[in-house]
Write a structure and sequence with these properties.
Elements: E1 17-19, E2 24-26, E3 29-31, E4 34-37, E5 40-42, E6 45-47, E7 54-57, E8 62-64, E9 67-74, E10 77-79, E11 82-90, E12 95-96, E13 100-102, E14 104-107, E15 112-113, E16 117-119, H1 136-148, H2 152-159, H3 170-175
Parallel strand pairs: 1-4, 2-5, 3-6, 4-7, 5-8, 6-9, 7-9, 8-10, 9-11, 10-12, 11-13, 11-14, 12-15, 13-16
Length: 177
């Protein structure tokens, strides 16, 4: 009738790896066990697939990239999407600029998410996997293609000198109506 809950010793302070506040990493980080980030990571952070890994980002920690782990505790800043296949805790100083994919979430007063909160069923989330949720990969490819090739009209507008051609600003068009 009642499920036996697993106890994760998240608050014990025992982490296998520490990125100190005087350290900056550029590139993807793959880990298992526990990872505590006090510094800055520019790249994707992946927990080992199928592991029961715990990622903690402290109030002075920052990640610029996506984060994938079963258990995540954030009190710092993430500029990217967060994928938690088990439980996600957002402490009072947490700031996420991206979408959050979670199974269970706990959010303290003061935590900020500038993106969407997307609940996933148990087992329906990539978590430690590097596979993005369905539809997300296509969305990234489309936005990447748009960023790589601006519309032809944008190029013409940037290359045109003021007073040349027959272009009329939107303000001039609005006032002549």
């Amino acid at each position: 009738m009642f499920r036996k809950s697993r106890t994760i010793n998240k608050g014990s302070g025992q982490y296998d790896t520490l990125v100190s506040n005087k350290m900056s990493i550029t590139g993807d980080v793959h880990f298992s066990g526990g990872l505590h980030i006090d510094g800055r990571v520019e790249g994707t952070v992946y927990a080992e697939e199928g592991s029961d890994a715990v990622l903690r980002i402290s109030d002075v920690g920052e990640v610029v990239g996506d984060v994938y782990a079963p258990h995540i505790i954030i009190n710092g800043t993430v500029h990217g999407n967060v994928y938690s296949s088990e439980d996600l805790e957002l402490a009072s100083k947490a700031s996420i600029h991206g979408n959050v994919y979670y199974h269970l979430i706990e959010m303290a007063m003061g935590a900020a998410v500038n993106g969407s909160l997307l609940h996933q069923r148990e087992g329906g989330l990539p978590g430690g996997s590097r596979t993005l949720p369905s539809g997300h990969r296509e969305q990234q490819q489309e936005s990447g293609a748009r960023a790589a090739s601006p519309a032809a009209g944008d190029d013409e507008a940037r290359n045109e000198e003021p007073g040349e051609g027959s272009s009329t600003s939107s303000l001039e068009r609005a006032s002549s109506v």
